[in-house]
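Hi team,

As requested, here is the filled-out complex form for the pyridoxal-5'-phosphate run. I kept the field names the same as last time so the parser does not choke. Let me know if anything looks off before we queue the next batch.

— J.
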Amino acid sequence: MPVPNSKPEITAEVGGQKNVEALLKVSRDFRSDTMTIPTDAQLLFALQASRGDDVYMEDDATSSLERRIAKLAGKEAALFAVSGTMTNQLSIRTHMKQPPHSIITDHRAHVHKMEAGGIAMFTQATTHQLVPSNGIYLTLEDIEPALVLGTNIHYAPTKLICLENTLSGMIFPQDEVVRIGGLARKHDIGMHLDGARIWNVAAAEIERRGLDARKEEDLETVLTDLLEPFDSASLCLSKGIGAPIGSAIVGTKEFIDRARWFRKAFGGGIRQSGGIAAAADYAITHHFPRLAGTHALARRLQEGLKELGCDILAPVETNMVFFDPAPIGLTLDSVMARLKALPEPILVMRERLVVHHQSSPQAVEDFIAVVAEMKKEREAGGHPEKEQVDDPMLEEGKLRRQAALGY
Ligand SMILES: *Cc1c(COP(=O)(O)O)cnc(C)c1O
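And here is what came back:
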């Protein structure tokens, strides 16, 4: 559970009453983990940050954040930019030299589905979107036959493999990442990670290994291992970590120097970026250790909904729960409407529920209570629950099929 604070994160005296109310709203907002807001302490920390010009590379707060993230990631250098879309697209642009060339992604990948067609726009690459045969994550066996190698002029050679971790909240098994990395190296193909939620993977891994999320060196150990197979990675700071803005690329110094050049061309150089860099720095220090609690809250939400008879559509491994209330005779629309009509509304965006570090345990309990109440009403109306088939394989098959939908 999130660590109870001795002091509220936002007070009327420091943050203003409007923002006290905004915090209550986001604590009940399950649409995304972008729905966090900066805390008083975070903005007070930002207030003290250096105010140099980062395009001239004269801002200490930005440079020190970049150095910190590079070290945590076990890479030579890092580059701060405004969004995860920008850091993915800058990375991909930096990898790709000149057509003909192509990129392998999962068919659900954010880089090709959710970034406004940026890959085609900025690199002229063809994207090969693969469907994982296990329904959840790509394997070496999926990727190897799809590689375009050699000099046959009909084809666009594979220059980059892009993976995503987490994808729909699911953790990419690291031994498979390592195998894919080996394949890429063998053929001199680049490896990029869309690690928008790699912090969540790191938090889960720290827990699994019995390490301490508050220790910089423990985070470094885990993140370095996770990113070792990649030439570059994009790490969002405004998702689970809860920075107001920002994302970072990590890679070799040469790669980052080149990406910095493209960032300028994209119009993405920021002048006095110290305040936002400091807010992100604060978030790594103070919010990262809360992710384990976030994940526990997601598990509680999953258990509550499952106990009531809802389908859980994908494995809950970090901060996302995909649910379907159809087995208890409810529609998503009706559940969403009832949650929104509460005196203190709960917001959801269809079947994907995202828990973040400011989600409140109370919101999770209220959510479960609403579904329980609706289920009871439904039963009282003489519509018995649909018969449940108790077959683990059926359940597993459903999970895999549903996970393939992607978000
Ligand atoms: C959110 C997200 C991004 C980047 O999004 P921005 O809104 O541009 O910061 C990239 N990849 C994944 C998987 C994401 O969830």
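Two things worth flagging: The two ends are 26 Å apart (CA to CA). The longest strand covers residues 158-164.

Thanks,
J.
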